[in-house]
Amino acid sequence: MMVRCGFEWTGHAAQADGMMYTLHGRAQNTPVSKLIVDISDKTPHTITVKGLIKENTFKKSNLETWVSLSYVPGSKEFTVHDVVTNKGDYTRDYQIIYHSNFGTPILEEGARFVAPVKEISPFNDYAKGGLNTWQTYLGPTKGFDEMVFNVYPFADTNGQTQVMVTNKAGDKAAGIAFNINQLPVLSLWKNTDTLKQGYVTGLEPGTSFAYPVTIEREQKRVRQLEPGQSTEFTLTYSLLSNKDAVTKYAEKIKAIQGEQQTKVVNEPMAKE
User: Fold this and answer.
1) Which end of the chain has the least Cβ crowding within 10 Å, N or C?
2) What is the pLDDT of residues 53-82, one digit of tens each?
3) What CATH number did the domain enclosing 53 receive?
4) What is the rounded CA–CA span in Å between residue 136 and residue 139?
5) Is residue 47 part of a domain?
6) Is 215 helix (H, G, I), strand (E, B) or coil?
7) Over the stretch 11-55, which tens digit does the pLDDT of each residue have?
């Protein structure tokens, strides 16, 4: 359901700096070297699964990331909390996109993306064709290519924001809450191809958009960690399984948006 795209780099593949930056980094394909499962003895008996991902490249990165997922039995949400540390002696780049994927029965014709959007733009020329309908989804559509939009979300005074995808009836949805100080942007990925080919949407909070790392560096979205420095990310995923829960989640999004207007930019911010 969620893929960590990072942490040394993310985005589309590129060749630069004498190396190949593969699609969306290596963390999602790297097994943890340590695994801890903790069940709290005290109420509410939170279950936490925690693992250590190491990204070590000679003369380049030395990142260690403790990734965790916590769940309170009986609840309809779970929390992801990751801590990235630069273990090297040099300042190093880092990036992350939390590629969170949802399909049926939430995704369907007339399903909606609901978010407090400050600015939205098409990722490329293909996405320009869907800019007028970025808030809604098609049913399974043969020949539909990946359509991506770059989003800057609004947040409350503490930097907290939340987004969701909901079915047409508004009685099934999935929501993600995160902090824009940690994850300032969001990629909206629509892949409403056929069911066999992959009928799915991605709600993807991140430090960067999905352009290659070379473009993200040029546009100043690649962050850095000093030697020994750590940074953290916290996201809460909610399963909204009835109309009341969906409505309450949407009301919180509406409150964050308030009277603030969404800026729609017609051209992509970069060309690959």
Assistant:
1) N
2) 999 988 889 999 999 999 999 999 999 999
3) 2.70.98.10
4) 10
5) yes
6) helix
7) 999 999 888 999 999 999 999 999 999 999 999 999 999 999 999
